Amino acid sequence: MRVVDAARPYAPGLALLVAGALLSRLLAGAVDGLQPLVVAVALGALVGNTVGTPDAAEPGVGVDKLFLETGIVLLGAAVVVEEFLAAGPTVLGLVVVAVGGGLLLAELIARVLFRLDGTTPSLLAAGASICGVSAVVAIGRVLDARGSAITFAAATVLLFDAVTLVAFPLAGEWLGLTGRQFGVWAGVSMFSTGPVAAAGFAYSPEAGQWATVTKLARNSLLGGVAVAYSLAYTARSATEPGVRRLWAEFPKFLLGFLAVAAIANSGVLSAAALESIGRVSDALFTLAFVGLGLSIRVREMRDVGAAAVGAVLVHLLTVSALALAAVRWLL
Amino acid sequence: MASDAAGDEPDAGNARGTGSPLVDRWLALDRGWQALALGLGIVAVHAAAQVAGLL
Question: Most CB atoms within 10 A, among A113, A208, A304, B46?
Fold first, then answer.
């Protein structure tokens, strides 16, 4: 009974998240090409900016961050080392250069060209260079970024997800790319995993497979980038640097992500089990993104929106142009 | 950082205690450890379901 009593304050907020997530799934299922996660954020933002979050729901809605981090832990099940290797050294090299170079380029563009400061450039860089909103959230947790900075960067990434989902297949047709060229190009240049796979399969089945494998290879670098960011920011701000402080600031859920990736690649779990874990991860992300949307404040987004959108646009155009030249030359 | 940031600290209600040692211990964990435990728990449930022939 004590457990039930302790859980009671969380019930209204959790019910709100579940209702939002179910509605998002229903709406996304009814409209082709609509991403449930996009709908979840949009629904949350709509409620948050009109009626607001009821006081009674605040404790439960606050659990969204735990759902996010647990979803990231389970995302480890989607990291397939064999697929990463099967993509070949060329694609592997492209992915590493695109992520490493893309992160530095995005930081440079955002900080120097568009004068953004704080953690926002890093969040935008992570979202644009690794795996979209998941990376924004993971790096945001690593850097202890403000909730508004995370939601703002996530919203910027989602905006570009929607645009590139339509623009990339059209551009690929116009450029006359083969399925493999298009898949790797989309996998290296676009942001979130869902839209990358969707754009790839919209182009051709072969493009869809290459896009997915390339994107998974990119996603697998999330852990390394998170650790690098963690060390970089700690080194910059630490007053008493040392192993203890590094450990105190290390996001423990990343260990879970690596552990689940190791378990998934050990072969002990069946394909059905991995698929089911992926569905649980999706469900947790949907719940979390309703909460993420509830914390979005349009007024705050308006204040810094143009600069961030400009920075991500310049980054996307640069990276996608370079990636296009590379896939045409190498593949 | 996420796990030990201010946002992860136990709230006032946790500090008072809920009367359940299990719940108190869970709430005292920072969020990173909670996510790690939940994630591995979900994987363990799937492994058990697989052994039981359900997956």
Answer: B46
Cβ–Cβ < 8 Å for A284, A73 = no
Is ipTM over 0.85? no
Residue B30 has phi, psi (to 5 degrees) of: -75, 165
Q: Is the dihedral of CA A125, A126, A130, A131 positive or negative?
A: negative
| Contact criterion met (CB < 8 Å) for A73 and B36 | yes
Residue A263 at interface with chain B, using a CB cutoff of 8 Å: yes
Q: What are phi and psi of A221, to 5 degrees?
A: -85, -5
The Cα B31–Cα B2 span in angstroms is: 8
Residue of A nearest to B14 (CA): A6
**CA B37 – CA B42 distance, rounded (Å):** 9
Separation of alpha carbons A270 and A152, rounded Å = 38
For residue range A289-311, list pLDDT tens digits in order: 888 788 766 665 565 578 888 99
Q: Which of these ranges, A29-38, A138-147, A169-178, A312-321, has the smallest mean pLDDT?
A: A29-38
